[in-house]
Design goal:
mainly beta; Immunoglobulin-like; 2 domains; 7-stranded antiparallel sheet; 4-stranded antiparallel sheet; about 15% helix
């Protein structure tokens, strides 16, 4: 009789465990959820007044004086939005170049980017610290941009300063020619490293 009770209890115990297991199995389910982060690489040029800059408003007021050519304009701001990949494209650069037109003989046009103004977030780019001679060859002006955004509009992002000067080499003043008045197109590119 004790053996029958032990067998019955064992059967009841096994039945209870299988019932509990069956209940747990029927009360759970799952599905997958995929999260995708898009690649983003956008750049824009902003200004509080006008994105068209004019140099050359100087004049000579007395015979024997030289035309002073040393003008700076810092009305341009670049805004960008960037999401990079840690393996495929770990950072981006902003390059600048003259894409149309030619800088008149005797003159140099320089460019310099300033530190981000702080209205955005993320891993902001680092400006190249020195003033650079602007030509038709692309120049890095902001490097090491990660996943970041600058904010939208003037006074957000990186301020860009252009400086027009007479070349320092001898004979530069003699190369000045008012028939060489020109319009330049300046191109900014946000590109992967």
């Amino acid at each position: 009789m004790i053996i029958k009770i032990k067998r019955s209890m064992l059967c009841y115990f096994l039945l209870a465990v299988s019932f509990i297991y069956a209940q747990t199995d029927n009360n759970e389910n799952n599905h997958t959820l995929r999260i995708e982060i898009p690649e983003v690489a956008l750049i824009n040029v902003q200004s509080s007044s006008n994105t068209s800059i004019k140099f050359g408003g100087g004049s000579v007021v007395e015979a024997g004086q030289a035309l002073k050519i040393d003008e700076t304009d810092n009305s341009i701001w670049i805004n960008y939005s960037s999401i990079v990949g840690t393996q495929s494209d770990p950072s981006r650069n902003v390059t600048i170049q003259v894409s149309e037109g030619t800088i008149p003989n005797g003159l140099d046009l320089f460019v310099k980017a300033e530190k981000d103004s702080g209205y955005g977030g993320g891993k902001m780019g680092k400006p190249v610290s020195k003033m650079q001679l602007l030509t038709s060859t692309p120049l890095d002006i902001v490097t090491k941009i990660g996943s970041a955004y600058t904010g939208v509009g003037p006074n957000k992002g990186h301020n860009i300063a252009y400086t027009l000067k007479l070349k320092e080499e001898a004979g530069s003043y003699a190369q000045l020619n008012f028939d060489e008045t020109t319009t330049l197109v300046i191109n900014y590119t946000l590109s992967d490293n």
